Amino acid sequence: MKKLFILAICSLLFAGCGLYGTTKYNVDLNAQQADLSHIDQLKKASSCSFLILGFIPWPWHKHKTPDTLFEAMQQQNLHHIVWLDSTYDYRFTYANSCQNAYGY
Fold first, then answer.
1. How many CA atoms lie within 13 Å of 63's alpha carbon, on the beta-carbon side?
2. Considering only CA atoms, which of 50, 56, 46 is closest in space to residue 85?
3. CA atoms of 67 and 72, how far apart (whole Å)
4. What is d(CA 88, CA 97) in angstroms, rounded to the nearest whole number?
5. 10 Å Cβ neighbour count for 33?
6. Which of 38, 69, 79, 95 is the most buried (most CB within 10 A)?
7. Largest CA distance in the chain
8. How far apart are CA 48 and CA 67, in angstroms?
9. Do residues 54 and 95 make contact, with C-beta atoms less than 8 angstroms apart?
10. Closest to 87 (Cα-Cα) out of 96, 79, 78
């Protein structure tokens, strides 16, 4: 019984990486309204988080980014946002999630 309990806990912890992406909110933008006439001048602002087992924040990750997307946009001096997206990288023991903003 004890081994089954430990196996169930380990399974839930490792499943955290997959569950992390399903609980995030989504921002929907209409691609027809996006101004992509000067696509070569687009700037990118990103805010990324690195999570061990899908839910434990790891602050010592090698790629440091701002804590919020608004801070990242201020650092990149973005005033007109054209496009927002999210990128996720799930591995067996960790998750890397980034919120990206593109604009001028």
1. 9
2. 46
3. 8
4. 5
5. 7
6. 95
7. 63
8. 8
9. yes
10. 96
Q: What phi-psi label fits residue 53: left (phi over 0), alpha (psi between -120 and 50 degrees) or beta?
A: left
The identity of residue 82, as a single letter, is V
pLDDT of residue 22: 46
Give yes or no for a contact between 95 and 73, defined as CB atoms under 8 angstroms apart. no
Q: How many CA atoms lie within 13 A of 20 on its CB side?
A: 28
- Is the Cα torsion angle 40, 29, 68, 12 positive or negative in sign? negative
Note the pTM of the prediction, 2 decimals.
0.61
Amino acid at 50: F
Each residue's pLDDT expressed in tens, for the chain with a length of 104 residues: 888 888 888 777 766 655 544 444 455 556 666 666 777 888 899 988 888 876 777 777 666 788 888 899 899 998 888 888 888 887 778 888 888 998 88
Q: Are 44 and 66 in contact (CB under 8 A)?
A: no
